[in-house]
Amino acid sequence: MSKFIEVVPFHNYGIATLREGDSVLVVMKPLVEMLGLAWHGQFERLKRHPIFSEGVRVTRIPSTHGVQETVALDLKMLPGYLATIQSERIRDPEIRERVVLFQREAFDVLFQHFFGGRGPVGRQALTANAAEAIRLLEAIKRENLPSARGVLYSMLGQVLDARGLPCPPVEELVEPDYAREQALALLELIEARIEEGAVPNHHRRPDRVAFSVRELGDIGIELTRDQLAVLKQHPRFIANCPVNCRDGRNRHCWVFFAPAPEGAAMVVAP
Questions:
Q1: CA 237 to CA 259: how far, in whole Å?
Q2: Strand partners, 61
Q3: CA 162-176-145 angle, 5° bins
Q4: Whose CB among 6, 55, 181, 208 lies 3.0–4.6 Å from 203's, allowing a Cys bridge?
């Protein structure tokens, strides 16, 4: 199933979305960071919540680095998720005001955009200013995950296009991070070796992948501390913890959601 990102105008912001069949998905990492919240903590909340986890998907999207995986939430779950953010506990008044704005209006704007019968809003309707373009540029420079960077770059393109300005290639905006790219590619390599039977997948569930770093070393895959740190940012990362393995032994493993089949989305369960 082909997917594309559509950025829906919302005040001076843009909310990245995906269409999947009859469903609308909201791309979550850019949204959470737009709200001024820490992505890792919010992702953990989504995965572990008994209701929101039903609407979370790890799905493949096109980006400036090819097809990448990203985390999205079914639109119908968005009001409940936003309502759980306790704005009164946010000390920064600007962030608190922004969170309240999204809580009050974001769902209605998205729902009207997709289901209100008025058709998609053109990119020229995106009322972003120069400050928003600068914010996106800085976010692109800081972002390490290619899928999230691709979303931000798409948003930047719409902001600049609305102002009649060209968008430079993403390679001109960020320095190549070869260690990060290598670390992200390592997960694909590890899963390929598991598929070949060179190392076991220790998890008992078919929708999980659990591997021992020590056993990887035995077959010549040595992961550095920096590479392990980057792997924690992978959208499918769950935990680095003891696992009751298929052979009945307990091992310390790195645990990920299994990759989604080509053209399909993966439902993230708690």
A1: 11
A2: 68
A3: 70
A4: 208
Mean pLDDT of 233-262: 88
**What is the C-alpha separation between 177 and 179, in angstroms, rounded?**
6
Q: If you average pLDDT over residues 164-169, what whole number do you get?
A: 70
Band (pLDDT 50/70/90 cuts) for residue 261 is low
Q: Looking up tokens 């990492």, which residue turns up?
A: 29
Residues 6 or more apart whose CB falls under 8 angstroms from that of 8 comprise 14, 15, 17, 109, 110, 113, 121
Query: By the 8 A CB rule, do 63 and 146 touch?
Result: yes
- Residues whose CB is less than 8 angstroms from the CB of residue 53 and which lie 6 or more positions away in sequence, other chains included: 46, 47, 268, 269, 270
With vertex at residue 15, the alpha carbon angle to CA 270 and CA 188, rounded to the nearest 5 degrees, is: 50
> In the chain, count of helices (H) and strands (E)?
9, 9
140 touches 153 (CB < 8 A): yes
* Tokens 């920096």, located at residue: 226
Report d(CA 208, CA 201) in Å as an integer.
8
